[in-house]
Amino acid sequence: MAQWDDLRVFLAVARAESLSRAAPGLRMDAATVGRRIARLERDLGAALFVKSPQGYALTDLGERMRDRAAEAEASLSLALDEARGAGAGDQAGMSGQIRIGAPDGVSNYLLPQVCAAIGADNPGLEIQILALPRVVNLSKREADLAITVSRPQAGRLTVKKISDYHLHLAAPRDAEIRTLDDLQHRRIVGYIPDMIFDKELDYLDELGAQSVQLASNSVSVQAMALRHGAGVGIVHDFALPFAPELKRVLTDSISLTRSLYLVRHTSDRSSERLTRFADRLSQGLRAEIARLEALVA
């Protein structure tokens, strides 16, 4: 019969879709992880994965087992949270591991300093930041909570708005851009069009541009390209203090407002630890957005 440790290994491979990517988090080598999966499949008498050079894809049975194992993992996490709270009192610091999934702009310019402050107050807490150019899948337990730029419309999720934030057109400080016509002969830096994973990240219409001459799926790469004089592009106001070579231009003509949302799996809403962390994270993000935007206002 499969033991919880077997399911833990199975979940890690199911989420990583690879033995080598799952191994570090399990503190095992890839060969050991492979043997554990083979033993589990042998004990069950059924295949959980389809193996290929591209990785490990779940079979139909594997997908059903992943969902049930994830539910068991969540229940175990809640039980441990309750035990920690009962044993340490209401004022105890948070502990254990919490993983946050977020777009790379938030991951690069906001989360490091906010999470550093939370970690300083909670030395027993291990915080992981998962920066992905796509929406984090909480149902697959890729993370404990996610930050998104659109409110999810499906899934067993709880969603709370964190804050609005602002974006403007930015260019090198020596650029002479006074009217929209001045953009006609400027290279546009932005997202790779077919890799925009959220409609709120599609800024081309705001610029009246038809194409992007230098593109990346990473907003941080875009900002670095602008810092090296690659052209003009939309930049988060909260990122500009980290890019002193850039300035906002045409602020009266091009000004965008977007929002950040904190998303959690519904089954986690009774976790006091995650709720405390989510509240502290939201407060920290609101304060940091306000602080950084004030520096460029």
From TrEMBL:
Keyword DNA-binding: yes
Classification via SUPFAM superfamilies: Periplasmic binding protein-like II, Winged helix' DNA-binding domain
Residue intervals of the HTH lysR-type domain: 1-59
Short name of any one Pfam family annotated for the protein: HTH_1
Record Gene3D superfamilies: 3.40.190.290, Winged helix-like DNA-binding domain superfamily/Winged helix DNA-binding domain
GO MF annotation: an example: transcription cis-regulatory region binding
Keywords, alphabetical: DNA-binding, Transcription, Transcription regulation
Family, similarity comment: Belongs to the LysR transcriptional regulatory family.
Name this protein carries in UniProt: LysR family transcriptional regulator
